Amino acid sequence: TTGTTVLAFDMGASSGRALVGQLLDNSAGDQTLQVTEIHRFPNHAIQVGDHLHWDILRLLHEMKKGIRLAFQKGYAPSTFGIDTWGVDFGLLDANGELLGNPYHYRDSHTEGLIDEVSDLVGQEVLFQQSGLQFMPFNTLYQLYAMKKAASPKLDIAQTLLLTPDLLAYLLTGVKVCEFTMATTTQLFNPETQAWNSELMERLGIPSRLFLKPIHPGTMIGPLTPAVSAELGVPAIQAVAVGTHDTESAIAAVPAGDEPFAYLACGTWSLLGTEMAKPLLSRETMELEFSNEGGVGGTYQLLKNIMGLWLLQECKREWDEQGKEIGFPELVRLAEHAAPFRSLIHPDDPRFFSPSGMVEKIQSFCRETNQPIPQSEGEIVRCILESLALRYRQALEQAERLTEIRYGGLHMVGGGIQNELLCQFTANALGRPVWAGPIEASAIGNMLLQLIAQGKCKDLQEARKLVAASFPTEAYEPNADMDWSAAYELFLGFGRV
Ligand code: LFR
Fold it and tell me: What Enzyme Commission number(s) does the record list for this chain (predicted)?
């Protein structure tokens, strides 16, 4: 048992975590990765006046606490890495100070801007030059919203740092732009592998803000002397991992050398497949898939699906009404509710913004002439069945694009703790689901630190380490309900 120890911060839209990873040699001389969670903290969206924000300083505070805790608990990580959700950013002034609180990607200031920018630039041009699905929250629209609001911050900003890069900067003082996050902005051209400054100019977005991207597995630098003194720990090194959480999660899919399909399941559901290069065809655009930069030189052809956000928001509402029903209990209630009574299309745009989720689900059912779900069990059942059917639709679309048939679906991330969702997914697909690992983003984060330290050769070897270290649960489809009939109904909602 030799000790390479790394520390991963994985920031999700509803909580953040610090986990320690230890690379251990077993008696047979094989290596395994052992993962221990050492700190978990909530992450809240906060409405301030007209805008929805992240509490970035609170996140920094919790990260510092995580670093201190790692050492207090007797671990001695040599490096740390940070992964977060995509697209969001902070702006720094000429003195390197943070200009205000970063906006939350669900802030309403980007409403209507997809159409406005497409009219200006042309939808196909925009897709060709970014490879991304048109999502209202993409960095491009956020910056364009600031431009339209004549934000003085945009005028005085010197540097834009995407969230994980911002957090790394606040700890190390080093400004970088990590590649996987850069590819979520819609301002990075996957073909030229460069920032799209022409597009920025068209939209009045200052191109001086953007640093040249560095690739996952690059060292950023040590904690500043001030931070290491404050925490009473050595100045450990930050590594630029696959800092977009989705890319870290995909890195931890325990797949072999064959092409595979995956679903990263958290607040969002990202369903897709790994590619050697982006697929910028018209059909990709029409089927609303993204090409996101991944780790190890990959591109990820994937679709954003509204995901367990639907359930999280309903739960938040019920909690606020004092019901306080835990997720396991909600899933149990769903299990006992009637099947296929009412379905929604998870990606109907109404579901994107926070609040009023129960009523939004009911209104969807009303408008589509279905029975209106009332009880918690009925609502949760509706969400889970609808997600499973959406996964089938997205998987079949991915297969159309790649002309490959996938034997089953790898599911990773916190959402797989919802066993009913995994089983529904297998049923809807009529194919097996292989679920695991749960902490995929944090594990993928660690893998890139190991690669950066030369402890692991490449992505392929890293995935073997995942397969050797974490069990997966197989779900076989069962035909006790008529998922095909439900799928036909679902397709009738008419969205790609
Ligand atoms: C998942 C994720 C998705 C991104 C969304 C918003 O956590 O990173 O990949 O599209 O959050 O940033």
Answer: 2.7.1.-
